[in-house]
Amino acid sequence: MSERPYDIVIGLEVHVQLKTRTKLFCRCSTQFGLSPNTSTCPVCIGMPGSLPVMNREAFGLALKTAVAINCHIPEFTKWDRKQYYYPDLPKGYQISQYDLPMSEKGWLEISDPKGEFEPKKVGITRAHLEEDAGKSLHDEVAGKADSRIDLNRTGTPLLEIVSEPDMRSPREAKAYLTELKLLLEYLDVSDCNMQEGSLRVDANVNLHIHNGEGQKIATPIVEIKNMNSFRAVERALAYEAQRQYEVYQETGRTIGQVPKQTRGWDDQAMVTRGQRHKEESSDYRYFPDPDLCPVITTAAEVEAVRNNLGELPAQLRVRLESTYGITPYDSDVIVSQGRPTVEYFVTLAEATADGKRASNWVQQEVLRVLNETGGAISDFPVKAAGLAVLVKAVIDGELDVSRAKEVFNDMVATGKSAAAIMQERGIEKVDSSALKALCAELLAASPRIVADVKAGKEQAVGAIVGQAKRKNPNVSPGEVRAICLELIQEM
Amino acid sequence: MTLTRRDVEKVSLLARLRLSAAELETMTPQLDKIVHFVEQLNELHTDGVEPMAHALDLRNIFADDEPRPSLDRDAALSNAPKRDDECYRVPAVLGE
């Protein structure tokens, strides 16, 4: 941070499509990918005389999310008409929330498991419930100057979550988005699919440049749109910061001297480009929607929602670290995989009474296989209880880790139990007196090695370990090594 | 307040109404009269009256999240000035 002559100031606006079956104000289906204009009705295409009615489920999901991001929930909230003309907005206004949003003043804590920035609470200005617009389809047919409009998406419930300008680097912005998305997934309120547009991100960014005299000069705020992945957000912000610094050095223009600009991210060219200024776009002439009734939420209702949130990522990480003794990095990896993986880990850790080993097995074996096969943990052929039998066998010294991994691969491939595969492979714990006898026999046959070890070349014993493994694959290399060294000392 | 011709030009732009010079000439004083009429409300003493955020007394009117049939596509598109088999057609949207 300190080597840069400026601070980057970032605020994010996230639009999340809520997971409802029907639209916000009518009962048309919200299903993605339907044939164009087959999911509309007089309400969502704005026919005169139609009457919007609030979707109970949409409000509930919005409330749940707002509570989870630590927002204050005012008792009274209402909806307003935001007027502007655009072909994908059939009513000529969007039903949104203006001065009395359903939630405000929350926060979300972000941290970096690799410690690249200090943990911080990012303020959330507000989260409000509004309807989505339709889509303009690009007409590929040459010579046709028209845009084609599909209104299926019109009226889909969106929660707009606006952060304070609290992030100071592209990495912090990405961490905020990652944490928010994970939280939304745990809450099961949205599909969070950026490709399908169920999660969209716009960023507001400017710089506070140190002028060398202890003062900070703010550059004009730029809104960046059209970022289709979190990686794109990170890249666009890094690009935009550098661009603003160069423009400032060239023009000296500061905030207030130019109107707020909107720029679009071009992921191919890796640049932001100025977008056409929407004339008078700031004059939305909001007024309360007379067709929609306000909603009252009591403190008791908010409390009930809070009590039913379930364990959320931040709490889960802390619990996994304190209960099972794993590192913040490990708890982050496991929690980031979602609730089923956490449950898998907890079952394994409880059954084996060894959290660190359970964490290693989940990350190095289970998640590795799932990454390779692209499957979900709920369909994974090796259940946590079944893996626990194998891990316990390792703990009890019945087999070493490398053999156990072979057994694990067989379990994945065949769906058989650990016990069955160990039996097939003739894996059993080697009796300690038999092991000692084997070591003695091998050492007797290799006076050279004994001499080398006695002369201080302890690593020479490795050859004996290899021989022992060949004679009996069930022996533990560590044990063979220890016994041999002990025997040689006694010689 | 008094409305100027410039205010009316702005409002007509926002409403996407193309007014001729003559229409602006007529409408500016007309709109001004309407605004002044509404301004009479300022004569009321509203101290101690709770601001009203909404005209309706009803609260918490919800519908269940149960899909119902949508309009047939042809019916939905039937009012469009221009359409094709699937979509509304509008003048090309530029700049975005």
Descriptive account of the structure:
- Chain A has 491 residues and is α+β, with helices and mostly antiparallel strands.
- Chain A folds into three domains: 6-303, no CATH class; 311-424, no CATH class; 432-490.
- Helix content of chain A is 40%, strand content 19%.
- In chain A, strands 1, 6, 7, 10, 11, 12, 13, 14 and 15 form a nine-stranded mixed sheet that branches. In chain A, strands 5-4-16 form a three-stranded antiparallel sheet, with no helix packed on it. In chain A, strands 3-17 form a two-stranded antiparallel ribbon.
- In chain A, helix 3 links the parallel strand 13 and strand 14 (261-266).
- In chain A, helix 12 packs across helix 15.
- The longest helix of chain A has 22 residues, at 230-251.
- Chain A is elongated and about 95 Å long.
- Chain B has 96 residues and is mostly helical.
- Chain B has a domain at 5-43: Histone, subunit A.
- Chain B has helices spanning 5-14, 21-39, 73-77; strands spanning 62-63, 88-91.
- In chain B, helix 1 (5-14) packs across helix 2.
- The longest helix of chain B has 19 residues, at 21-39.
- Chain B is flat, with a radius of gyration of 22 Å.
- The relative contact order of chain B is 0.08.
- The chains are: A alpha+beta (491), B mainly alpha (96).
- The A-B interface holds A 20-22, 27-29, 35-42, 45, 53-59, 76, 78, 83, 85-87, 100, 136-137, 145-151, 264, 275-276, 279-280, 283, 285, 288, 290, 293-296 and B 10, 13-14, 16, 53-56, 58-68, 70-71, 73, 76-77, 82, 84, 86-96.
- Strand 2 (54-55) of chain A pairs parallel with strand 1 of chain B.
According to CATH, the fold-level topology of the domain at 5-43 in chain B is Histone, subunit A
CA(first)-CA(last) distance of chain A: 63 Å
Beta-strand level of the residues of chain A, as a percent range?
A: 15-25%
Nearest-integer average pLDDT of chain A: 92
Give the number of helices of chain A. Answer: 15
| Largest β sheet strand count, sense and barrel closure of chain A | 9 strands, mixed
